[in-house]
From TrEMBL:
Pfam families: ECH_1. SUPFAM superfamilies: ClpP/crotonase. Its EC number is 4.2.1.17. GO terms for molecular function: delta(3)-delta(2)-enoyl-CoA isomerase activity; enoyl-CoA hydratase activity. Its main location: other. Keywords: Isomerase, Lyase, Peroxisome. The lineage of its organism: Bacteria, Pseudomonadati, Pseudomonadota, Betaproteobacteria, Burkholderiales. It is found in: Peroxisome. It comes from Duganella guangzhouensis. Signal peptide: none annotated. This is Enoyl-CoA hydratase. PANTHER family: ENOYL-COA DELTA ISOMERASE 2, PTHR43684. The keyword Lyase applies.
Length: 257
């Protein structure tokens, strides 16, 4: 099972479990998480959700082989499992806690902006190398990171694809707290347990109120990003970037105007 899923003491835990590929996410993994989140919406036994990975890797982001083999021919990505997953996550009415250790690449960082409480280990490293892959930001990150970090810092992360550590993520407001890696999982589980014990209706309304102002702009940003992202996935720049990654060489973008 490349996504470990369990419901215990009111917490739905989803854990990336593909360490030999650095937890890179395939279509099947997105689908498994989308299905679990969708089922959780109407399951009163689930009162909090915990998203996590391993102690040395959260996720290397979208599986690049999947990107190469399954680029959408029509350019539309709304029917893909990544879309189902991100819509289920961003639309979840239940509180979502994330616990991040090691690398959180691409969508691994983007998805955190749709969670409620985000805890990172001191070994966490965040990056959004969309431009470096010939792509563009996705699932609201162009808007949300700019709001969280301010434009100039967001530009470093989204244009230059600069990676950053847990302390910087904390300073910029992307995460809630930094913990020693050995304490991360238990701490995040403890926070989720606190949410479970609180009145579910109060949590639901509080989350809805906190997210109300950004709801329409995020929906618009996702639609605009998807229009570009779907086309860029099958463009030559992205093909060169994906091939370069697997051939363990630097991509050569100078051949493209
Ligand atoms: C809509 C969503 C958009 C996105 O998410 S865009 C972001 C896509 N992700 C990436 O560009 C990240 C690519 N991966 C990396 O940069 C590195 O990995 C890491 C920094 C995460 C870790 O580096 P290290 O510890 O040196 O591991 P390693 O040797 O590069 O990887 C171990 C094995 O895992 C495979 N792998 C890593 N990431 C991916 C991936 N994203 N898709 C498919 N395979 C991946 C490698 O190829 C390799 O395999 P082998 O052992 O056969 O050489």
């Amino acid at each position: 099972m490349e996504i470990l899923s369990s419901i215990e003491n009111g917490i739905l835990t989803l854990e990336f479990n593909r360490p030999e590929r650095k937890n890179a996410i395939t279509a099947a993994m997105y689908q498994a998480m989308a299905d679990a989140l969708t089922a959780a919406e109407s399951d009163t036994a689930v009162r909090a959700i915990l998203l996590t990975g391993k102690s040395d890797i959260f996720t290397a982001g979208n599986d690049l082989e999947d990107f190469m083999k399954n680029a959408p021919t029509s350019g539309a990505i709304e029917d893909r499992s990544v879309y189902q997953f991100m819509m289920a996550l961003s639309g979840s009415t239940k509180p979502v806690v994330a616990a991040v250790a090691g690398n959180a690449v691409g969508i691994g960082t983007t998805l955190l902006m749709h969670c409620d409480l985000v805890y990172a280990a001191d070994n966490a490293k965040f990056s959004m190398p969309f431009v470096q892959l010939g792509l563009c930001p996705e699932f609201g990150s162009s808007l949300l990171l700019t709001q969280i970090a301010g434009y100039p810092r967001a530009a470093e992360k989204l244009m230059l694809g600069e990676a950053f550590g847990a302390q910087e993520a904390l300073e910029m407001g992307l995460i809630s707290k930094v913990l020693p890696v050995a304490e991360l999982r238990a701490f995040a589980e403890g926070q989720a347990a606190k949410l479970v014990a609180l009145p579910a209706s109060s949590i639901r309304v509080t989350k809805e109120l906190m997210k109300a102002a950004r709801k329409a702009p995020v929906t618009d940003a996702i639609a605009a990003e998807n229009t570009h992202f779907g086309k860029m996935l099958s463009a030559p720049e992205a093909k060169e970037a994906f091939m370069a990654f697997f051939q363990k060489r630097k991509p050569d973008f100078t051949q493209f105007a």
